Amino acid sequence: MKAAGIDVLLLAKPANMFYLTGDGRLCAYAMVSQDGKVALGVPTTDVEDVRRLARFDRIVGFEDEVGMIHSIAHSFEQFGIREGVVGLEYTFLTQSMLGMLTHPHGKPEKVRVADCTHILSELRMVKEAGELERIGAAAKVGEAGMKAAVEAVKPGLTESQIAAEAEYAMRQAGAEGFWRTYVSSGPRTNIAHGLPSHRRLIPGDLVMIDLHPIVNGYSADMCRTVCIGRPTAGQQAAFDLYLRAQQATIARVRAGVGMVELEETMHAPLKTAGHGEHIFGPPIHGVGIEFEEAPLPPGHAFFHGEKAPPPLPANVVLAVGNCGLYAGPWGVRVEDTVVVGSEGPLVLTNYPRSLGTQPAREGTRR
Amino acid sequence: MKAAGIDVLLLAKPANMFYLTGDGRLCAYAMVSQDGKVALGVPTTDVEDVRRLARFDRIVGFEDEVGMIHSIAHSFEQFGIREGVVGLEYTFLTQSMLGMLTHPHGKPEKVRVADCTHILSELRMVKEAGELERIGAAAKVGEAGMKAAVEAVKPGLTESQIAAEAEYAMRQAGAEGFWRTYVSSGPRTNIAHGLPSHRRLIPGDLVMIDLHPIVNGYSADMCRTVCIGRPTAGQQAAFDLYLRAQQATIARVRAGVGMVELEETMHAPLKTAGHGEHIFGPPIHGVGIEFEEAPLPPGHAFFHGEKAPPPLPANVVLAVGNCGLYAGPWGVRVEDTVVVGSEGPLVLTNYPRSLGTQPAREGTRR
Asked: Could you tell me which chain A residue has the CA closest to the CA of B325?
């Protein structure tokens, strides 16, 4: 904070509040001073729950938006801050939320605002042992979800029903939640964000399943693509090409590697094969409290309000294989969660990577 | 748009894009002119899929953020807009997204920006027949999810396992997705946003279940609270009080009623009973493409960047009973999706409203 010229943080993003204070909930804020004092503002109803979960220097309850703004004023007062710079999360706050957090009845007039996104991103990027353990647990839960989903893949079921199997299995295996589940099939595998639809699977379909379980506040990210029946030669070739690129990229994951080098390792074979226009989004991104977080490759980082990442230190966690290969009229994607080790990669998501052959007989609900 | 002095809309919120164009996806934008021309920008990979789903005057694909900014420049050019006002969604855009949509390589220098939130909210507030049908279908799916969840409530299961049952049943019943599921139990029913945790249910617990299924792009919102075993006299009294307030409010739902009147009808009996500090959030809000949307009561509307709502026309859809009663060390909430009819309310979510008595024997996974 000192280096960034920020005197106090005013956080509202649950992921950041969870990281710094152990509690990240909706409709709340955390004010954090340079010397580590934390004031938490939550709905009045939640005060006892927060007290039970974590320790804070000050907890204030509010009943509505006006109450929240006044409580922000009191927190500034309590911290003795009348001027200087307050850091806000520019990559999270909407215009209306920004208006509330900087309302003239809350923020002292002489306090200026600045973006604090990079401060939190830098802190969160390198994971401690306890965080790695939780991400590992999420990866295991993801494997259970993927197994349930892939085994359910049969003609006649809808994409949403496949998602149901994955999500049910993840909660039973220990997830308290999950980020959005993607299940797409047939021509829908050719789009970048395949949220489940009512499309029914038919023989010959590719099915793309992308899961993001949350265990004790931490996530994993895994994608597999499978075929119902025998894949065509073109589908198999595209899958093999993509998997080779992904595995070559994973092989380079170790302390000191740059995001640009990883991005190029993933992209180069796809572009060489003429697929430069058939990929989308960062091929590699960070994984942690959020399933998609810093580090991002520099180009993406800039537009997402993040700083270009340094050579990766050990214990950064990455998802490798996010860009997909959308060759049309279908696509393939394989993605895994990988820890940056000092000597090499540690792959956390180990469900088999195979286009495989799912039985082409009619499915039934269980 | 004319009345608001806005020459062109530049939308990025999936719900708004879906409403106006029939397609709302992530990482995309829609530019809409006053005379109804629509240009859509999507990932290059998605162009064919978009073409299949809806008709547009212009579809452009982009491969990354720079491509998106350039495509925005081309769309402004195509629409012949070099000055005037572009409307942006201030209640949706983060600072970083706003930066991309108004990047000097995209937006012409002389084009000014203004908030267009209220334009879309006003359009979306009154539902057409096809929309009511979809919300009704979502309500039925919500009932199936609630039945599965309530029947699963047994000591020994976790909150997350109860959520699993609800979500699985909703997808099987026809949901393509759902907004976040809340399941809280015991002391956790006393918080405003009870995301499922690993807490195991025990005899005597209240369990609060809040579901938000999505069917063909439209949502419903329903909450029930049930007890494991026999509720205490205090729990039953709080539940009865809350249910009476909610039902009295629903009884007043008809064309011409004001949100303030509905809010007061819900709040008054709770406040009279000394629970003024035991409620949180708007007691009533709109339901549609989003499970929480305009109209909001005026106080909340202001801070959420929405306009104060007019007397409600027929065919607005409301969730009634959102504020909860968090009496500590437990809370109760009952919430239903209700259509504003010209003669009175039409309640869409009809799962029984009873604190009930769930069996207090050990549960097992199915």
From this structure: A45
